[in-house]
Design a protein that fits this description.
Elements (H helix, E strand, L loop, with lengths): L3 H19 L7 H4 L46 H10 L1 H8 L6 H12 L19 H17 L7 H19 L3 H15 L4 H12 L8 H12 L3 H10 L3
Helix pairs in contact: 1-7, 1-8, 3-4, 4-6, 7-8, 7-9, 9-10
Length: about 250
């Protein structure tokens, strides 16, 4: 069964391919094609939920211990409009801050120990590290960090048109060099879109911007995915998985 996001993604690909068949190859360089990524941010923000109850977006509170000014980090938002602005303008810094500076000290210490402790060849801890005992305030802080992190890491499949456009821009210079046929190019775009759909759009756009400007050396999907992960930030996904363990 095709999900709603999957159907939207398929429709976006179909629309792009139909347009490509009607228009001759423009010969547009990667540098020119990157104009739409000049901001390096998604074109739209998944709005903060207005539902009541447990949604932490309705009861944002300041977290203790924040030290704004560190490279790549931002202070925790005090209000819902501040949260929306941060997610729209600096989702990369939100993702990094939510897995580092915004965390209560007991969680930060536990996470550091979990990441540096000895592991086997499959990455499993040789000795379990007990989860920290959290106060109600620290539990609230953790919930809010995960909520902001989840918003910042919203999959690109929720914005299929922008995802297809980012991939098209990333592949513009590559297609020019490889001189691939229209059919092969269309197939490559479909493969790349499906491979990138679970990453946040802003990370894909940032990597696409690097590729279109010739700032990165790569010529295949594996290289591009490595750059998407680099754009996403060091250990963000691994830290997110660790944080989710504390909520189970």
């Amino acid at each position: 069964m095709i999900t709603q996001d999957g159907q939207r993604l398929q429709n976006a690909l179909t629309s792009f391919l139909a347009t490509a068949r009607q228009s001759p190859q423009s010969g547009q360089s990667g540098q020119a094609a990157s104009a739409s990524l000049s901001s390096g941010q998604p074109n739209s923000l998944t709005s903060l939920s207005d539902t009541g109850g447990a949604n932490p977006g309705n009861a944002l509170v300041s977290l203790t211990g924040t030290e704004p000014g560190r490279t790549g980090l931002v202070p925790f938002p005090n209000t819902k409009p501040d949260a929306a602005r941060l997610l729209a303008e600096q989702p990369d810094k939100v993702a990094l801050s939510a897995t580092t500076m915004w965390l209560p000290l007991p969680i930060a210490h536990w996470m550091s120990c979990s990441q540096t402790a000895p592991k086997d060849m499959q990455g499993r801890l040789l000795r379990p590290i007990p989860a920290p005992t959290l106060s109600e305030t620290e539990k609230t802080q953790l919930t809010q960090c995960l909520w902001m992190l989840g918003k910042a890491l919203t999959p690109a499949s929720t914005q299929p048109e922008d995802l297809v456009e980012a991939i098209r821009i990333a592949m513009a210079e590559l297609r020019y060099r490889s001189k691939s046929s229209e059919e092969q190019h269309a197939l490559d775009i479909k493969i790349w879109v499906n491979a990138c759909r679970d990453f946040p759009l802003w990370a894909i756009q940032k990597a696409a911007d690097w590729w279109s400007k010739g700032a990165r050396d790569g010529d295949d999907l594996g290289h591009f995915l490595s750059d998407v992960r680099l754009a996403l930030g060091t250990d963000v996904l691994a830290r997110k998985r660790l944080l989710e363990q504390l909520t189970k």
